Amino acid sequence: MRKYDNYFIQLHEKASQIEGQASSFKAKSQLNNLNSLFYTYYGNNLEASKYSHKLYLLFEEHPIIKKYNVNGYNLAINNYAVSKLHMNDFEGAIKLFNQLDSKEVSNYEKMLVFQYKAGNQLSAHLALGNINSISTFIKEIEDGLLVYEKYLSDLFKVIILTNLSEYYFWAKNYRKAKRYTSNLLNEAYSEIRKDIIRFMYTFNLIISFESGDYDHLNYLLRSYQLNSKLKNKNILERWIESFIEEALKTTKLTASFYVNKELELLNFALKTESLKEGFDLKKFNFLIWIRMKTDTKSLKEIRYEFNTKDLTGYAKDRAKQLS
Predict the structure, then answer these.
(1) What 3-state DSSP class applies to 254?
(2) Which of 61, 111, 264, 298 is the most buried (most CB within 10 A)?
(3) pLDDT tens for residues 7-38?
(4) pTM attached to this predicted model
């Protein structure tokens, strides 16, 4: 049982008992928000999205409240958009994020909107492979980071720095990708999203590999192998470690090298349901990265193909293409 199971179950049961009786905006909004949190906590994305949508519509049905409670409305937009992210409706999420209102609100509320855009909207753009079309948006994020950084929650700092590092990686600006990764790893975020912090050590290897800085990559690999924070490495961490070791020993990396490595990953993906350890591609999609080494399709085209299938379906289809 997870830490807050009893608490969430009790709240959900009470909410279910009074849901049909709620009539005021306040009561309805609190119930919709509670139900959305409950289903999000238990990974039921469909139900979570339904209640996030109901909360968003509640504001749309009350224009006066929407006008004078901009912060509440922005939060409802963000939560509904995030639910769409979980459902892989990235374009729908971006449309919602574009409705966020940062005009004529307090500086604190402007900072909240910045967090939603830099953390969540940028995640949607990355999931779609929107790299060449969002340079203006990225500049807004970087400018906003300079203004709001000392006021941001550690959680959003981690997400924003990770997003910016990934954006510049796909944009092939490895110097800036390294800068944001280093900023993240040099900060004390030990209790905030340990999974992301751990992943960034792995991502750092990939960035250095792509930049061609093999001397530094040798140093990073040794540090990675000895890092006490990376004990009990998972599938993807061990695969990257092996990939880098082989790449450093190989005089010339051919297309067949990358194809064989992609097939290894696809095989892991096909076995993921029977494995005890996870095969997490949400922080960074290794399958898309390794495919880009040999495929002529654009990042956006490959992303679309990946987003419209489940992991098993994608892995089977891609393995057939390579065979």
Answers:
(1) coil
(2) 111
(3) 667 766 766 656 565 668 888 888 888 888 88
(4) 0.90
